[in-house]
Specification:
The structure holds 2 protein chains of 2 kinds. By secondary structure, chain A is an alpha/beta fold. Chain A has 2 domains: 115 residues, Rossmann fold, CATH 3.40.50; 148 residues, Succinyl-CoA synthetase domains (Rossmann fold). In chain A, the strands form 2 sheets. Chain A has a 7-stranded mixed beta sheet with strand order 3-4-2-1-5-6-7, sandwiched between helices. In chain A, helix 6 runs parallel beside helix 7. In chain A, 59% of the residues are buried. Chain B is an alpha+beta fold. Chain B has 3 domains: 71 residues, ATP-grasp fold, A domain (Dna Ligase, domain 1), CATH 3.30.1490.20; 122 residues, ATP-grasp fold, B domain (D-amino Acid Aminotransferase, Chain A, domain 1, 2-Layer Sandwich), CATH 3.30.470.20; 148 residues, Rossmann fold. In chain B, strands 7, 8, 9, 10, 11 and 12 form a 6-stranded antiparallel beta sheet that branches. Chain B has a 4-stranded antiparallel beta sheet with strand order 1-6-2-3, with helices on one face. The relative contact order of chain B is 0.09. The chains are: A alpha/beta, B alpha+beta.
């Protein structure tokens, strides 16, 4: 079992024929992902040869779904075209749209997320590394070869911190790792992932990685108190970030006294979540907890 | 990108919202001229991108053009919460009958914009919300509908604003959407004794991600206060200057933020945030090193890279090539971990630069970099 993505998932890639799309489609295939097609109206009807297989290019998401039964789309198109791409995917009935694209105007994200909600499409991202169910499927740009299948579920705003924890805990392994993205507005929240991991019988423990900006972690803490029965270990980045400055991710900003790392850590600790001071210590807390449970 | 008050005022005016007559200048002499043009009596307002201007003495009434010159001279160059006043705006005084508050803000929790409005304007809205929450109306806006006249009427009703404000509410929504703003705030929105509705002071934050389609932004003042930040921006680097002595270079925003924290936990202060992204090519590494090393406060540099998509040997090659183009003047602590970590470390060992040290763990490397920066 896993959340959102399994070996049964049939994946389309919007923007497959671009540089990033080609590079990462190759990597997704190598990780075992069932990539069933690319989408590009100007290259419809062609196929692209990767090492593992020849992947057809469709003129639209609709055609791709009709021909292959695809249920997941990974979006690599440039920021100016991302809104249209997600709206198209949602209208075609895709279940899960994973938006890797960084730099999408917030008004576009607000619009396509509302549209996707109205069509019942789950969006992960934008500005995210995607998600991976190790040993089964990889939708996005997370490196697949730094960890293995296992018992931990991970949800994170940050790509490289996800990789760091995946690597440090490679001997324990993961059910699914979800990079929800660092933009101020994203389609899938920490809470959505906590709920999914709580319901997933194979996920034994949850790692939650947050960072400064907004109050998603505080809301997640409240959700944990009410609904999560599995142990959660947390990590928060950005204690030293100055007020009013954007730290790399568009959403990573402390505004006045809100969005601080300290407030997030306190909220999580108040509901019994152990929060590491460094990524390595966080991994250590996970190992310690697993030890005491077995 | 936050706009100055005078830039927000211009945007409001372009979208048909009434604003006081005003002009901006960096010269006390010109301030006198402007005051004369505006009728003599003016409000002199410091142009800084921070709150609390009034309390800091950055907003003053001047009775005549001579007083305007003196007041402008006092305010120009003033430090307000770390911001130096470079310009003042001189505005005609307004005969206020009542003050309101209106803003459209991004609500991260729902992924939609939210209207915050109150009939009690003129003070910090957080204070009003804390002391009299019932006086503050919060009305979500459906992105597919926007703020129509009907929606604006609903907002005005909920907040107890006069019906006259409906037109302004609709126009402010147009400012938000047409200009790709993340925040539009008017505080106060006033009704004058003559019954007109005016935006007296405003704050607008534009979405940097929309720069590609907002071509007019090129004209706006995007100057960096800090020369190192300006140099980094010119090289396309994601750099934020901080106050410490350990230079930080890493890949990925989250990992770099975490690196700052871990260094701080070791008793040193980070000198900067610098995210060189997933690629970490030789050129970006060289650009990053040159900016970080040019900071005189930096005593040691910590390069913290996790090899994921780009494997560590490629990153190590980048560092070695960068060392050929940048003269290393301070000790460099490198931590490489992830894909091909062993090969990457071997590449750096072979280079055997006397100022480069490798530590295999992030926490250990942070400790070492902190030691090097704080040692006498």
């Amino acid at each position: 079992m896993a959340v959102y993505l399994t070996k049964e998932s049939k994946v389309l890639v919007q923007g497959m024929t671009g540089g990033e799309g080609m590079k990462h489609t190759r990597r997704m295939l190598a990780a075992g992902t069932d990539v069933v097609g690319g989408v590009n109206p100007r290259k419809a009807g062609r196929t692209v040869d990767f090492d593992e297989r020849a992947v057809p290019v469709f003129g639209s998401v609709r055609e791709g779904i009709d021909a292959t039964g695809a249920d997941v789309s990974v979006v690599f198109v440039p920021p100016a075209f991302a809104r249209a791409a997600v709206v198209e995917a949602a209208d075609a009935g895709i279940e899960l749209a994973v938006v890797i694209t960084e730099g999408i105007p917030v008004h576009d994200s607000v619009a396509f997320l509302a549209h996707a909600r109205s069509r019942g499409t789950r969006v992960i991202g934008p500005n995210c590394p995607g998600l991976i169910t190790p040993g089964q499927s990889n939708a996005g740009i997370i490196p697949a070869d730094i960890t293995k299948p296992g018992r931990i579920g991970l949800v994170s705003k940050s790509g490289t911190l996800t990789y760091q924890l995946m690597y440090e805990l490679r001997d324990v392994g993961f059910t699914t790792c979800v990079g929800i993205g660092g933009d101020p507005v994203v389609g899938t929240s920490h809470i959505d992932c906590l709920a999914a991991f709580q319901d997933d019988p194979d996920t034994e423990m949850i790692v939650l990685i947050g960072e400064i900006g907004g109050d998603a972690e505080e809301r997640a803490a409240d959700y944990i108190r009410q609904h999560v029965r599995k142990p959660v270990v947390g990590y928060i980045a950005g204690f030293t970030a100055p007020e009013g400055r954007t730290m790399g991710h568009a959403g990573a900003i402390v505004s006045g006294s809100s969005g601080t790392a300290q407030a997030k850590r306190e909220a999580l600790e108040a509901v019994g979540v152990r929060v590491g001071r460094t990524p390595t210590e966080t991994a250590g807390l996970v190992l310690e907890l697993l030890e005491t449970r077995h | 990108m936050d706009l100055f008050e005078h830039q927000a005022r211009e945007l409001f005016e372009e979208h048909g919202i009434l604003v006081p007559r005003a002009e901006v200048t960096d010269s006390p002499k010109q301030a006198r001229e402007i005051a004369r043009r505006l009728g003599g009596r003016v409000v002199v307002k410091a142009q800084v991108k921070t709150g609390g201007r009034g309390k800091a003495g950055g907003v003053k009434l001047a009775a005549d053009p001579a007083a305007a010159e003196i007041t402008a001279r006092q305010i120009l160059g003033m430090d307000i919460r770390g911001h130096t006043v470079g310009k003042v705006m001189l505005a005609e005084p307004i005969d206020i009958e009542s003050e309101f508050y209106v803003s459209y803000v991004l609500d991260r929790a729902t992924g939609q914009f939210l209207t915050i409005a109150s009939a009690e304007g003129g003070m910090e809205i957080e204070e009003v919300a804390a002391t009299r929450p019932e006086a503050v109306a919060r009305v979500p806006v459906d992105p597919a509908q926007g703020v129509t006249s009907a929606k604006a009427a609903e907002i005005a009703e909920a907040a107890g604003l006069p019906a006259q404000t409906v037109d302004v509410l609709v126009r402010l929504w147009t400012v938000l959407t047409r200009e790709d703003a993340l925040l539009v705030e008017v505080n106060p929105l006033v009704r004058t004794r003559q019954g007109r509705i005016l935006a007296l002071d405003g704050k607008v934050t534009l979405d940097d991600n929309a720069r590609f389609r907002q071509t007019r932004w090129g004209d706006r003042d995007t100057a960096h206060d800090d020369p190192l930040e300006a140099a980094a921006a010119a090289k396309g680097l994601n750099y934020v200057k901080l106050d410490g002595e350990v230079g930080i270079i890493g890949n990925g925003a989250g990992l770099v933020m975490s690196t700052l924290d871990v260094v701080a936990g070791c008793g040193a202060r980070p000198a900067n945030f610098l995210d060189i992204g997933g690629g970490a090519s030789a050129r970006i590494m060289a650009d990053g090193l040159s900016v970080v090393l040019s900071d005189p406060a930096v005593k040691s540099v910590f390069v913290n890279v996790f090899g994921g998509i780009t494997a560590c040997d490629a990153v190590a090659d980048g560092i070695v090539q960068a060392l050929d183009t940048v003269r290393l003047t301070k000790p460099l602590v490198v931590r490489l971990d992830g894909n091909n970590a062993a090969r990457g470390r071997a590449v750096l060992d072979d280079r055997a630069h006397p100022l480069v040290e490798q530590v295999t763990t992030m926490d250990g490397a942070a400790r070492r970099a902190a030691e090097l920066a704080t040692a006498r």
